[in-house]
User: Fold these one by one.
Assistant:
Number 1:
Amino acid sequence: MSKELIRLQDLTMEFDGERILDSINLYINDHEFLTLLGPSGCGKTTTLRIIGGFLNPTSGTVTFDGETINDVPPYKRQINTVFQRYALFPHLNVFDNIAFGLRVAKLPREEVTERVNRMLEVVSLKGYGHRHINSLSGGQQQRVAIARALVNEPKVLLLDEPLGALDLRLRKDMQIELKRIQQAMGITFVYVTHDQEEALSMSDTVVVMDKGRIQQIGRPEDIYNEPKNAFVADFIGESNILDGVMLSDYKVRFFGRTFQCVDKGFAPNESVDVVIRPEDIDIVAPEEGHLVGVVTGVTFKGLNYDIIVEFKGFKWLIQTTDFHGEGSTIGIRLNPEDIHIMHKSEYSGMFGDYSSYSAEYDELTEDAEDEEE
Amino acid sequence: MKKANRILTVLMFIFLYIPMVVLIVASFNTSQDITKFEGFTLRQYAELFRDEDLLRLLGNSVLIALLSTAISVAFGTAAAVGIHRLKPKMRKVVMNLTNIPMTNPDIVTGVSLSLLFVFVGTRLLGQRESLTFWTLLIAHVTFGLPYVILNVMPKLQQMDGSLTDAAMDLGCTPVKAFFKVILHEILPGIVSGGIMTFTMSLDDFVISYFVTGSGFVTLPVEIYTYTKKPIQNKVYAMFTLLFLLIFVLMVAMNLLQLRANRKRETMRSVSKGGAIFRRCAAGFAAACVLAGCCFLAFGNKQDKIILNVKNWGMNMADGSDGTLDIVKAFEEKYPNIKVNMSYYESNETLYSQLKNGGISVDVIIPSDYMIDRMRQEGMLEKLNFDNIPNFQYVDEQFKNPDYDPNNEYSVPYTWGTVGILYNTKYVDPADVTGWELLWNEDYAGKILMIDNSRDAFGIAQYLLGYSVNTEDREELQACADKLAEQKPLVQQYVMDQIYSIMENEEAWIAPYYAGDCMLMMEENEDLAFFLPQEQGFNLFTDAMCIPTCCKEKDAAEKFINFLTDPEISGANMDYICYASPISAARDYMEDYLAESEIVYPSEEILANGTAYKYLTKETTRYVEGLYQSATKTADAEGPNWIPYAIGGAVLLGLAVTLPVIRRRKKTQ
């Protein structure tokens, strides 16, 4: 795409003997929209704070434009941040908040006014300059925070879960808005979120993190279609993950049957994880199916039904637009491109079984995650 | 229910504010008597603003309060920011440590600071006068700091922690971030902490009492010595003004806070209120600094000699009630000397203050036996009588006294007797025969006893026929028994509190110093004085001395000489109502005093009086022990258990309810 701007090399971070980051290696290109994605506690915010200069890594280097900036304090970096809860200054109005950085830099009065007004237009807040911060809605505050960072014309904008506090509808709007601003200003965005949908829809590059380690780096499509391990497969979208054996190139055996697949390069008879996305499964009459199972649960999702189907004691999630009642017997067909093979990892066996699946359960875990943030 | 609530609220406010109302009414009263309101006047306010001494004291208090507030706010805020950055565990420990001085009894803080200052100043720095304005300031900052920290910490904790990050992200250095962002967030905490510190400092007595030298006295410390005479009405005026000042300050602060809150709630755009508030705060801070600088500049420029005099309270004419203002007259005569008066309550207090060290005093006026003791312990300087020519006017009988045999250390100031003051309305003249009146059971509960061991033992010794200077243990024990026998009859053991009790007729009989008795008799004409001449009585002399901690000996001798001038001495006696050791002074006294039998008993009566001598250290200690056990042991049969019972019940209640409350909190 374009030249490399930031590089993190062997970044390690420890707090009180606890390892938060474990040898992070990452480069970020100019004009790129890069997202750090992972569950809470995975180290994504820590990584962002190291880039911003608010934390010093225990070991490893941060380079910016070819120079090591480990010891450069935040106020000397050409980087600005949009904080999780905005961190707007309550004693200043909208205009003064946005003008803060320019005034600290002692720019002439006219230039400050001009740039702030232009920025107010960019974030669609024209005429709000004299409003008090606390009189703004969440979305408006969000935009002030973005304007306050962008008005300084940084090379990189760091965004720490900037949409986390907004309701769903507003979040969708702001996602589009952010992408628009990023493209209009031509600035590198480093974006932190735990929302996979957000990550996939906005980013040029997604970095999936867990337990302080990078699990996978790639374009959104690659991350979704070619997850590297069970964690990524599960975290990005829904996945049925099964134990299988790679008999030879393009041949995998699971559930007592041998299937054609598109993967190769595994050792003969290597144990592998087999990923099958719920929306890739074709439902057919029982007699035509590769496998035959019984529907044990149905949830209406609007666009589709989530149905839970039991195959030989193992429950799968299947997404279908056709209704299949509980107790009905169905057959499924798996095309070679629907089957994705992964090497075994520490995450094997932890994800991909829908035996205990229920819609409520899903919501509960999501809430718990929000609270932790 | 609502009505009952309202009534209770009103009652509570009445309970809280009625004392203030009484004070304010009294400050406008034309009458001297606070129980009668005779008319409205502003005279007391006019008098207040003419009274340079009171204004100076008030100025001192305000100065200390402003400076200590400014320093506490600066350091306290910095400390709070530092503590806030600590790890939570450490933060808790540090917060507890900073809270302890606040919960510490003032008396403990005061005494320990005093010890520290004296030790550092005298021992390490070799200062003669280690208790000064600066120690007072340090002490006030010491107890002000925790209040600032305590008020600022919650604001820091409430504040979004990423505000600092945000400021630094936008180009601020950490210091700049503090001033541009953090300061605005924690300002309400700083202001309320500052106001608390200011008021605490303004009215602190206990700590100030121990750490200030004689050079710089604050209002509360001085007011404490006003117990001897009824408080002057202009003091009410000053208190009213002080109360109003604090009241306005608090109301203003609350209004500002309210406005700030309202602004945040409603969706109004930013008004200029915040800016005005900020400017006010900045102005206040600037005023503090300015006041401090002025003081320092003024203090340094002053090339006058400061003469520190320690005297009994109300023991020198001060210009009130048409008397001569002696200090003023002296300062007019010697314009380069400034007299600085401070006061003590008893000979023993004075002794311990000088013994503790750390202060510089130039002139003291103790009683005979104490002069004897100080002389023997080398606490007094020899006087240069070439500088005290007026000594020639002192009557021969007062020269070379027992307490200063070669008359090297002292010049007599006043003399007087100890007799019995009684109320003729209640006491049968037939009963007034001698010291035994104080043991008369018919007047049980209406008898006051003098509260110092020397005078109390003296009375018992006269009654029992022993020498007042006896060191015989058996005789002393007999005296102690006699005093213990008196105890059930005694309403209170008092010194200066005697004034109000006798004048208000709450007690009828009390032994006390003749001069003071004269003053009380002026206030209540039913009071009479009796001198038990057959049994004998104490004839005491107060004399002027220069202690070894003196810094301005020349000026001190000038002052002593001035007070020994017959005309000055006479004018002085008009105020204090004691007898002058200078016969010539009688010509300048008002006739009723000069001719009073009480002030100047006849020669033959005087022949029966005896003076106290200094007893050996062992005997003094022995007598003190006997006195304490004879008069101060707890009264087993009294209703003393009631407060203990209430206290116990409250503690028990707390012990029972606290765990319940805590448990409830946990389950929530």
Note: Residues 52-85 of chain B form the longest helix (34 residues).
Number 2:
Amino acid sequence: MKINSTIFIVLLSILFIACGGKEEKKKDGFSVDRKKATEKVEETTPATNEVPASERITLDNKGVGQIKEITLDPEINQEMVTAGAALFKTNCTACHKTDKRFIGPKMQGILDRRSPEWVMNMILDPKLMTEEDQCAKDLLVEFNGAAMANQNLTVEQSRQLVEFFRTL
Amino acid sequence: MKKYRFYIMTLIGAALVFSGCGNGSEKASSNGALGSSAAEKVYVAPGEQDDYYAFLSGGYSGNITVYGLPSGRMFKEIPVFSQFPTSGYGYSEETKPMLNTSFGFVPWDDAHHPDISQTNGELDGRWIFINGNNTPRIARVDLSTFETAEIIEVPNSAGNHSSSFITENTEYVVAGTRFAVPVPQRDMPINEYKSNFKGALTFISVEPEHGALDIKFQLLMPGFNYDLSHPGRGDSHGWFFFTTYNTEEANSLLEVNASQNDKDFIAAINWKKIEEYVNNGGGTKMPANYAHNVYSEETHTGTTTMKKEVLTVDPTEVPGAVFFLPTPKSPHGCDVDPTGQYIIGNGKLSADLTVHSFDKMIAAIEGEKFDGEAYGIPILNFEDVLAGTVKSGGLGPLHTEFDAKGNAYTTFFISSEVVKWKLGTWEVIDRKPTFYSVGHLMIPGGNSRKPFGKYVVAMNKITKDRYLPTGPEMEHSAQIYDISGEKMELIYDFPTHGEPHYAAGCPAELLAPKSKKIYRLDDNKHAYGITNPSEARVERNGKEVHIYMSTIRSHFTPDNIEGIKVGDKVYFHITNHEQDFDVPHGFSIIGQNTSELLIMPGQTKTSIWEPKQVGVWPFYCTDFCSALHQEMQGYIRVSPPSSNLELSWSLGE
């Protein structure tokens, strides 16, 4: 008798599985009633970090690395944009989207927040930047410690990416 | 016990302090009690690098292990003839073809004698070759990637032992058979071996620019056992020398029956002459079946071509190309000194070393001073070719290497020692014990025109009490001796992996600067590779499902896949989109019947997974790639065969 009912249940479950494609809906995730420790966070956060690093505007900061001074032509160079767009697709889209935050920050408006020198230094040597540049350090924390990958790009390629970012 | 340990530590500490002072000013040249600090000679401080690379064959591991000298630190195991789950070699779809042979997929071999490519008789560090002894094969390993680039099977051969030595411009890599066999193979009585079996010596050409291997010709020699070989160099360039044993042609109880003749031979082969003969249309094309496996660095994929023909040469058809040099007592090692003048045959059942002179050999050939012939091949008079005998007093001489100062170093298996002697005077200069029963030894460049005579590494067959015991099976021991002075000095002792036979070494600066750091993604021509995540997708073709996946720190694209069914054959084609040095990603999935994959930056590798159970199954990255490595995971949903669920895939949705 016991065996029979076991077999029945097994059969029933096979039947279920066999139906395949069925959505199993119970409830999405779980929630815990937690008092938000807002006060504490504010206490430990230094005053300068009130704005999240991704939204902070640091246009005067050129970052740390080989790029010291970049002058952008008022005119956007379309050739460079095309090259930059292609590079962005192969080397960056695993972690960056243009229009929204992904593994790393969104690229739209990046040049309203960062100097072109900072952007290029970050592309060319993200390790050095996250060690020595405060904004890069804070970004690493804000983005859960997902360190930016060094994609071994040339200075010229990083410049093309900047040109592409200007168009976003 | 604790107390003892404290004393010992104190002693060592004190010794370090002392020796540290002793060597402050003068560079370890003195042999004074304090100056002679073995520890300091092998100490490579944290963050510093070794002076030499050493490539040790793995013997029955089938692979090559890479070490640093003088530290004895192991850097890498290069999979060659054996499946290697660490990287997925021989398990991934791309590398399975590398192990194809005419006997099917052979996932193992016995790797013996690595040899680094040469130009003008000097190490050039482009490739390292190694032989598979059991199912005769020769492999070429690229020394910029340290990966196996090519494996060619050797037909008509068995026990591919007198291999894989190269000529002084890497014109050829040779592969000599140890076991004589019927050629072509056929069903015949074993006891009709004598005069019916053949010993094939195969000359494989190496394309100068890219190293591609191709069998140029096979010399079908009498059915002796061809044990080891080395090329002529300098004046003797154009010749190759092979030791033989079992010239008795015994087919049973060789231990006794192959030790009857007082002398066996060193076969001297004028390969330039045979090459000319073959280039002029000589030789006989013979049907054959052997695999040629080539790995492309562009497609990251190996392919197998079965070759159907081989060119054979009968040595009696090429007068003046092949001679036998009588050499006492079943010679094993066959080594040629840096000048190319002396050919050393180590009669393993003898106490003495026999040294032949190349000039005397040429004179004897020109004077036609023959002492008979064997199967139509002239035998030269022993006394006419003999340069000298090294009376060492040791037992069981096996192999000889050379330094740049006219000295030779020979291992003695039975008496467990390395003996240093002088070329030309044949006098013994020094002898040092090894631990225990040494086989080959290696001096970086020690079998080239330009040896780097600073260290000799002795590779031993027996370990016994050298290290902490690890049950009945122990790794083999090796010892490093400083040979820069008149006397050899034992400075280090380290365990190896598998059973190293021969080894090859070279200065670090020959390889380190050109060692590849990444594979460029824009050079990736893999049929299933993707160069950006937007190409990530899943395609179904009947029961075959191809997943085009990419990785970067620290996620797979896609990481959620549905619509797979029990009975499908799922190909995970994974491209690592990292372009930074030393950032591989791994891939493994529950129930994988092959092995994980370790994918280097810019590389694509494929693993087949055949789901057998309905469910939602995880996959993950096996290489701790970043702080978020533990998050680098995904799920694949497997539905029953009857399911109508469409394929879908996503990341972060």
Note: Chain A touches chain B through 21 residues (CB under 8 Å).
